[in-house]
Design goal:
Largest sheet: 7 strands, parallel
Strand content: 5-15%
Radius of gyration: 18 Å
CATH topology: Rossmann fold
GO molecular function, one term: oxidoreductase activity, acting on the CH-OH group of donors, NAD or NADP as acceptor
CATH class: Alpha Beta
Organism: Ophiostoma piceae (strain UAMH 11346) (Sap stain fungus)
Helix content: 40-55%
Number of helices: 9
Protein name: Short-chain dehydrogenase
Strand order of the largest sheet: 3-2-1-4-5-6-7
Number of domains: 1
Shape: globular
Order of helices and strands: EHEHEHEHEHEHHHHE
Number of strands: 7
Keywords: NADP, Oxidoreductase, Rhamnose metabolism
Family: Belongs to the short-chain dehydrogenases/reductases (SDR) family.
Structural class: alpha/beta
CATH architecture: 3-Layer(aba) Sandwich
Length: 271
């Protein structure tokens, strides 16, 4: 007997949703009955990811008419208008004409030695990871405040274990992830009067396109696996379940301002 869909009738938006963690969450939301609007950067490099993503959606819903379940919007999330355009597209594309769930996921991570770090890399990282999260979450919050639904809505920021620990080659990255966590805490206070819940997910070491080069070093990969109590690196699907939990009114209606580590126990073993 098939289990009930946890997000049936819900409408969600996800930034950076064609690859990695964002893609895994988007597909699981669709599997759980939600309609989803996905932001991606755009350009030729995205075309294979977009094609395969839509093919997966088609398989999930057993239909080639994916437009009834998903819309995609290209745009640089570091620009203030991109988040707004995503929200507007979602609201106008689905008959519900609202936004129930929003996941701020888009991010970049390029390792660099602190003393060699260029202003351009710093600005790109902060612009995408933190400014982009702020603009997109603000656009989502504005829409959710208009929803006039009992649940208000759920906003989830994808932070990182890096918000809690330092990284010698991540001096530009870790502050942005700490910022996302802090943004969710402050938004929980600011948006609570609208019934909007705001929480963050803190992934540990997850195999994505962002760290493929770094984890190609067998010694580093084996070391990280050894420090993780569950004995393996995370997979993108490991974030999908926690993201459903925080999105679900049934499962997390009184959870806001919280942070959830999804790291296989790595953080507690770093002490």
């Amino acid at each position: 007997m098939a289990s009930a869909q946890l997000l049936a009738g819900k409408v969600a938006g996800i930034t950076g949703g064609l690859t990695g963690i964002g893609r895994a969450i988007a597909l699981e939301y669709i599997r759980q009955g939600a309609k989803v609007g996905v932001n991606h950067f755009g350009g030729p490099g995205d075309e294979p990811h977009l094609k395969s993503f839509l093919e997966e959606v088609s398989t999930l819903i057993s239909s080639k008419d994916v437009s009834s379940h998903v819309v995609t919007v290209a745009g640089d999330i570091s620009k203030p208008e991109t988040g707004q355009q995503l929200v507007e597209k979602i609201v106008s594309s689905f008959p519900e004409q609202r936004l129930d769930i929003f996941v701020s996921n888009a991010g970049v991570c390029q390792f660099s030695e602190f003393l060699d770090l260029s202003p351009a890399l710093l600005e790109h990282t902060v612009g995408t990871n933190l400014n982009g999260a702020f603009y997109a979450v603000q656009a989502a919050g504005r829409q959710m405040a208009l929803n006039q639904t009992p649940s208000g809505g759920s906003i989830i920021g994808i932070s990182s274990i890096s918000a809690l620990v330092g990284g010698g080659q991540q001096t530009h990255y870790t502050p942005t992830k700490a910022g996302v966590k802090s943004l969710m805490q402050s938004c929980a206070v600011a948006l609570g009067k609208y019934g909007i819940r705001c929480n963050s997910l803190l992934p540990g070491t997850i195999r994505t396109q962002l760290n493929d080069v770094d984890l190609a070093d067998d010694a580093k990969r084996i070391y990280t696996e050894g420090r993780t109590p569950l004995g393996r690196l995370g997979q993108t699907r490991d974030l999908a379940g926690p993201a459903v939990f925080l999105a679900s009114d049934e499962l997390s209606s009184f959870v806001t301002g919280a942070e959830l580590l999804v790291d296989g126990g790595l953080f507690v073993n770093l002490q």
